[in-house]
Amino acid sequence: MINDAENCRSHPDDAMLERVSLGKADITETLIVEAHIHYCMRCYKRYFQLQQNLQNEFQSLGSAETVSPLLIDDDPILGALNDKLDIEVSKSVPSSTDPLQQILPPTVVDSLETLAGLRWNSFWPSKGKVSLLAEDRVGRYQLFLGIIDPGATLPGHKHSLNEQTLVLKGRYIAGGQTFEAGEWSETRPGDEHSPSAGLDEHCYCLIRAHKQGFEFTGPSRWRNVLVNMFTYPCGAPPPSIVEIIKSQC
Ligand SMILES: [Zn+2]
């Protein structure tokens, strides 16, 4: 379901959008950005405009590259958008009774072997859960599906690199801001945050974060002791986010 630009108040930055549209992004970046453009007409148009620019460059250089039939139209961008919309609508027909099928964008569903096979990890005490969806080839960045319970607040923490969150359903509250479906929240390295969900419903979100470099902060700092005791013996590589969450249970 593509919304009007006005409905999405926050977006991935241009550099990330460009990497994805030109096929230069890793799988985690690609999935979360393509999930965002599922909601956002502004970024949808930008995505196709960047692809069109690349095609034009090839043509101006006399390259043997052919122009995709998708982009050959009186109005190539709108033509491509319409075609894409048709594809999305056909994919939106429910084919499963799993409620996640209705919440996850088709591009994410298509990337998974099965929704039923997702492995979930929860913080103690349970405030929600996360499941690892994808990891880039070099094991640097991971993409998670997160579900935060209504009204719950996750333990305070920070990351050593940027963390991106895309809201899929419900409300995600972080840094004094409220983000709704399709909206993009990004924290910078070292930013402390303890996101929460709206009171009335679960918050479903995609979270892209560096595999390591996660640390509890503020009143939740005691949790780092458990991490060190159970998953970070001397000389071992730093624990992954999944290992850290498991150490809390
Ligand atoms: Zn956008």
Any key phrases for this structure?
single chain, 249 residues, alpha+beta, Arc Repressor Mutant, subunit A, Jelly Rolls, 2 domains, five-stranded antiparallel β-sheet, three-stranded antiparallel β-sheet, binds zinc ion
Describe this structure in words.
The protein is of the alpha+beta class and 249 residues long. The chain folds into two domains: 5-111, Arc Repressor Mutant, subunit A (Orthogonal Bundle); 128-247, Jelly Rolls, CATH 2.60.120. The relative contact order is 0.13. It is 33% helix and 20% strand. It has a five-stranded antiparallel beta sheet with strand order 1-2-9-4-7, covered by helices on one side. Strands 6-5-8 form a three-stranded antiparallel beta sheet, with no helix packed on it. Bound molecules: zinc ion. Residues 8, 11, 36, 40, 42-43 line the site of zinc ion.
